[in-house]
């Protein structure tokens, strides 16, 4: 800790503490910000709300675009529903539900860059 404290001012420590508090309350899995001369990146895993929840993950890397029909929290979606697509420079991959459920929590924003396996949406089982 002594090496770290030599690199950080009290203002830096306070800024990082505020970032951690924001990340804890945020629906986003990744935070990145500049603190002084450093870039701070916080990656966290967001647990499913309960045992009856199902996480829908990204089947590819790219820009996620949400489908119009899958936007409202609480909306019941059928198995096979396309909830959006992931676009790369040369292809588009549809994101199709493998099971039915109600939209509990969107974990990504429309137009957000996503990584393979990143949680896009949490479904509550009917």
Keywords summarizing the entry:
four-stranded antiparallel sheet; 2 helices; alpha+beta; 39% strand; OB fold (Dihydrolipoamide Acetyltransferase, E2P); 126 residues; 17% helix
Global Rg: 18 Å
Provide a count of the helices: 2
The CATH class label of the largest domain is: Mainly Beta
Task: Write out the CATH superfamily name of the largest domain.
Answer: RNA polymerase II/Efflux pump adaptor protein, barrel-sandwich hybrid domain
Please name the CATH topology of the largest domain: OB fold (Dihydrolipoamide Acetyltransferase, E2P)
Examine the secondary-structure arrangement and name the CATH architecture of the largest domain.
Beta Barrel
**What's the β-strand tally?**
10
The secondary-structure class comes to: alpha+beta
Strand neighbour order, sheet with most strands: 3-10-8-5
Question: Which outline best applies?
Answer: elongated
Helix coverage percent: 10-25%
């Amino acid at each position: 800790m002594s090496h770290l404290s030599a690199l950080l001012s009290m203002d830096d420590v306070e800024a990082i503490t505020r970032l951690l508090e924001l990340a804890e309350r945020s629906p986003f899995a990744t935070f990145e910000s500049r603190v002084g001369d450093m870039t701070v990146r916080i990656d966290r895993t967001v647990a499913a709300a309960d045992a009856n929840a199902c996480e829908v993950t990204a089947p590819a890397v790219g820009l996620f675009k949400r489908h119009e029909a899958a936007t409202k929290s609480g909306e019941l979606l059928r198995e096979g529903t396309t909830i959006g697509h992931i676009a790369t420079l040369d292809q588009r991959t549809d994101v199709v539900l493998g099971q039915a459920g109600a939209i509990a929590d969107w974990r990504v924003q429309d137009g957000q860059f996503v990584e393979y396996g990143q949680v896009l949406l949490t479904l509550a089982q009917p």
